[in-house]
Amino acid sequence: MNKELGLLNLFCLIAALGFLALAVLSALTSGDFFTIDNLFIIAFSLLMALLFAINPLLYLKSEGQLPIPGMKRSISAGAGNDGLLGTSTPPLLDAKGRAVPPDVQAIMARFGQTEKST
User: Fold this and answer.
1) Whole-model pTM above 0.70?
2) 54 and 86 Cβ atoms separated by less than 8 Å
3) For 85, phi and psi rounded to 5 degrees?
4) Mean pLDDT, to the nearest integer, of 5-15?
């Protein structure tokens, strides 16, 4: 799966760079920049470059390798200072006293709700 994803991202990056090069080439080699045909070719090329660049950029964002200014990095729910899960907070229990699954714990941590002692 990783090889296929890498190949897809490589193809998308090559296509995006190709469309960017086409837009720059069209802008530099045309005699009249503000013709309808030239503006259409440049706009179409930039749109296609954006469409092909979205997939690799979203992949990098999901992997945490794309720093986005102004956004804080989210820390996984329940992680302590040493990085081990569950060491800094007691386990969250449901009404019958069973341990709550990790995905529910993450949702509860996101909403800021804590366990009620009865």
Assistant:
1) no
2) no
3) -75, 140
4) 95
